[in-house]
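Reply to dn_fold:

You asked what the input looked like. This is it:
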Amino acid sequence: MTDALPVRLYDTNIGTLERTARGGAVLRWSREAIDRWGENSRVLSAGLRVGVDDEQASEAFFGGLLPEGEHIARLAREVKVDRGDVVGLLAEVGADLAGALRVGHLEAQQRDPEKLDIDTVGALLDRASGFLIGGGGSALPGFQRKLMLTRRDGSWWRGNGVIPSTHILKPVAAEYAASVESENYTLQVARRAGLLAFETWTETMAGHPVLVVERYDRIADGDTVRRIHQEDAAQALRLPWGGNDKFEQNNLSATLRGIAGLLDIGRTVFETPYADRLRLARYAAFTVAVGNTDAHAKNFSLLHDERGRVTLAPIYDAAPLALAYDATDALALRINGVTRLPDVTADDLVAEATSWGVPGGEARTAIDETLAAIVEATREVHAHPAIEAHVPGYIRGQAENLLAGRPARISSTIPLSLRERIGSPQDRGA
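and this is what came back:
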């Protein structure tokens, strides 16, 4: 059994992840990391500072890199370790993770990258569980089925510990094809509204409807792919991993205000002192307008560059979940104390942002601009026929209600998903 794993970040050996006497994990920092970034740097994590050996923070951070729910149970079965054994699990899947971190004895495990034919991609999609074993492996957190591959010269490749993955593939069963179209449309609206820059698309691969998402923590430079480090807010807030602490109703440390407190630290006098908190306010407005009730602490992230500077990552994993017939309307993270998404108003969004130290006038302007951009985007972004009658009008209607000072909800005597159409048709000439 492996009791310790080397950990590398930005080509630096930052320390060793060790199994503790009680079966947990702790990062023992290297002198190399301290010399490069200095004591208490946030280059790895806002919650696990350079030079500080902290078992609780180590487990929250490194456990937060792993899949969740049934997927981590399956990973544990396949590699024959306990599902709570962070060191044992990362020994098998630590070569390609969220961000720029690499964990494990990778030189002994890696093998040549493999160019995949469509049948092989289909077989991998059949088993997609947020991890791959072999060549040092790969993993991403989350309950949703996903597969991480590299796109190169128009083909899909398995990196095998040598080349980083560049895209996340999210397959669903054929009867749920509309769900990938909804998520893709929502992300395209976010892109048009200026909230993200990465590409997304849908396609059918070996019979699987698949949402393909370009990784924002990767930068392609010719044939070279560079990793950009990131962590999600649950890791940064040191929330326990593997459960539901990412939801505010389960852990009162999981809040938008807590996330805002991680931002805009160390800005110079020449920079806007609340730039990322203002961006978080835009994200919150988007979350409400599109009906994304699942915007929990793991769905907001921080980017850490090689100097240790921290910025807010683009929004991701967004879908109009509240539109579904049997969906909850409870917010994963409350807004100004409001717990139900349909009850949120623009005033609540502004009040939430001002509680983080963002000036009220600037918060109002940013939120109104974001909502107006969302309304415009719903008319411009093409919607698949499977979702065209409901999703664009739902998002547009909620954004328009917020702009008008009303709660987000669209009034209806029947469930919105059962209506023939929500709002006016899209402008097909756009």
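The first strand starts at residue 4 and ends at 9.
Hope that clears it up.
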